[in-house]
Amino acid sequence: MERTYVMVKPDGVQRGLVGEVIGRIERRGLKIVALRMNTISQEQAKKHYAEHVQKPFFKSLIDFITSGPSVSMVVEGKNAVAVMRSINGATNPVNAATGSIRADFALDTGRNVVHASDSPESAAREIGIHFRDAEISGYSRIDETWVYE
Ligand code: IDP
Ligand code: MG
Fold first, then answer.
1. What stretch of H or E contains 121?
2. Region 116-124: what's the mean pLDDT?
């Protein structure tokens, strides 16, 4: 099983979309193994988005992502990284597939409601930025034999 890091960004929290996002993750059959609301620090944000440090939008991205509470999750399941990216949709909501979170709830790249890691390596790195090992719960869900063959 694979793990990925998922965030409901501050715009998603402010717009009351936390339940909507969590509901989609749970209904798909993915398992939430860690969950927290907090306002992430500048230091965490800069580490999280380190790959974008040279981009013109970096400062506004860091200001936005640290501007208020966000919801952080570790999500586990078969192909969790790819499945979460498709649940979220393309970065620019205008290109997001119909039925994805970004297509259903967003219009602007800089206010695209959710984050999910783009590879298993990114997931391991991002989980390490946002969670301690002790905050991640390994458990079986009772429906697993009905979700997996
Ligand atoms: P991702 O969130 O789909 O992985 P990335 O390219 O990693 O997309 O960019 C990280 C975040 O930075 C995006 O989700 C978006 O909020 C923001 N971002 C990316 N490109 C732009 C841009 O061109 N203008 C403003 N914000 C951007
Ligand atoms: Mg990314």
1. helix 120-130
2. 98
